[in-house]
Write a structure and sequence with these properties.
Order of helices and strands: HEEEEEEHEHEEEEEEHEEEEEHEEEEHHE
Helix content: 10-25%
Number of helices: 7
Mean pLDDT: 90
Structural class: mainly beta
Distance between the termini: 88 Å
Radius of gyration: 27 Å
Shape: elongated
CATH class of the largest domain: Mainly Beta
CATH architecture of the largest domain: Roll
Low-confidence stretches: 4-21, 54-58
Strand content: over 45%
């Protein structure tokens, strides 16, 4: 009798499962503001990176295709998350207490490791434009920290994995563009052919397969990525609890990054946990929003540690060494301006180069490209930046009208920076006072120059 009863129970369970799998269901993520989630995002990538080829104007002897170099990257972003705001059933703002954020790069490059500083381990993430923006109430992030906490696979996009209609086992649909951008890491899309298929469904969970191609660009570098993977949706928690995708990407070099030919695996695991003190009602009530207090600004510290400045996120570091740092300002992947910061000679304590001599040096450096000086004079900024002198110049490079903003910046100890902003004349109006904003935030640390 007992054996027969067990058979009946098993039969009923199987029957329920088959019925559940056969009928159409509406699956969707539901934000849970009264609970917290522990999230682990891991990326393991291996392949080649390609440096930019010599320009067309380079001598023939320099026109060769550089050999691709081996690259291996492993990153982990582990945090506790709570939904702070939602709009139309989607998370609109989340608070994250970072437990670990680290990236290790190896290969035919000098190995290096980046991690997040303790003082900025509270992170707020909000939708902005076509993606997400992260910042810390603890202070400005640097670019490396931003890349750690604003990488691919942000769970805020997971609502877009699901169809807006009821689905049954075997149904296939295209994911929202927001998911394609998030899983690929592209900041703009050309084509989204990433599809999800409902593989299985029961009362406890749904299993999804993910497959397709995404074409787009990251920081102006065009790329194509094939993705194949799976996800498990917890129907009790109304939350994707695990997602894994294998990614194969070929990306062309862009204005600030090398080209890539990479194979990678992106894994996201989530589980409900108790709300930590840092994300309690009283704690999150005091957290700022992105637009407040200049929270979106990033901080840059020179390689020798002698100066630092805040800059907006459109400025991207192109190269840095002990003598020269180069930034490029991007707008939708296009370079609109370049900033070179070059270490100058020490002028002696409390001194700087004579400004008349500086203006003449500028004219000599430009040569036939010089047209006229638009203006010159001292500019204001943070007191720790000490002396700042600007020369604005109009010029030409062939048929192209250009504008240069030259700065002489000096510390109390007489250390000098020669800073040059270069932009097309047509961009000068939209560029506005971006140069003075950056230079005005420059501060000397007091560390002696080596």
């Amino acid at each position: 009798m007992a054996e027969n009863m067990r058979v009946v129970v098993v039969y009923l369970i199987l029957a329920t499962t088959m019925v559940t799998g056969a009928r159409a269901e509406l699956l969707r993520e539901v934000p849970q503001p009264d609970v917290a989630t522990k999230v682990r995002i891991e990326l393991k990538a291996e392949g080649k990176f390609r440096v930019q080829s010599a320009p067309e104007t380079a001598p023939a002897k320099d026109k060769h295709e550089p050999r691709p170099l081996a690259l291996k990257v492993e990153s982990r972003y582990l945090f506790l998350e709570r939904v702070l705001d939602q709009v139309e059933g989607r998370p609109a703002r989340v608070g994250r207490k970072v437990l670990q954020a680290v990236s290790v790069v190896k290969g035919e490059v000098r190995p290096f490791e980046t991690s997040i500083r303790p003082e900025v381990m509270m992170i707020i993430t909000e939708p902005k434009g076509a993606g997400y923006e992260s910042f810390s109430p603890g202070g400005p992030l640097n670019r490396s920290e931003l890349e750690l906490v604003q990488g691919p696979g942000d769970p805020m996009s997971f609502w877009g994995l699901f169809s807006t209609k009821e689905v049954k086992v075997g149904d296939t649909w295209t994911v929202a563009d927001e998911v394609a951008r998030s899983l690929s890491g592209y900041d703009s899309l050309v084509q989204n052919q990433l599809e999800v298929t409902l593989k299985s469904l029961d009362e406890a969970q749904a299993e999804l397969t993910i497959k397709g191609q995404v074409r787009g660009s990251a920081l102006g570098g065009d790329g194509a990525m094939g993705l194949i993977g799976s996800a498990v949706f917890d129907r009790k928690a109304n939350q994707v609890k695990r997602l894994r995708v294998d990614r194969a990407e070929i990306r062309q070099p862009g204005p600030v990054e090398t080209g890539l030919d990479m194979q990678s695996t992106l894994t996201i695991d989530r589980e409900p946990v108790a709300i930590p003190a840092e994300l309690s009602d009283s704690a999150v009530g005091a957290l700022p929003k992105l637009a407040q207090l200049g929270s979106e600004l990033l901080i840059f510290t020179s390689p020798d540690g002698t100066y630092t400045f805040l800059h907006d996120r459109a400025w991207h570091l192109a190269s840095d060494d002990i003598r020269q740092v180069v930034f490029k300002k991007l707008d939708r992947g296009d370079v609109v301006a370049q900033c070179n910061l070059v270490v100058g000679p020490n002028a002696g304590k409390g001194r700087h180069q004579d400004v008349t001599e500086f203006r003449e040096d500028v004219k000599k450096a430009l040569g036939v490209r010089f047209v006229s000086i638009l203006g010159a004079g001292e500019v204001e900024g943070a007191p720790a930046g000490n002396y700042r002198y600007k020369v604005a110049v109009q010029g030409r490079e062939g048929e192209l009208g250009l504008v240069w903003y030259y700065y002489l910046v000096a510390s109390p100890a007489g250390d000098q920076l020669l800073v040059t902003f270069t932009l097309g004349q047509a961009k000068s109006e939209t560029f506005g006072e971006a140069d003075q904003q950056l230079i005005g935030r420059l501060e000397w640390t007091g560390k002696p120059r080596r």
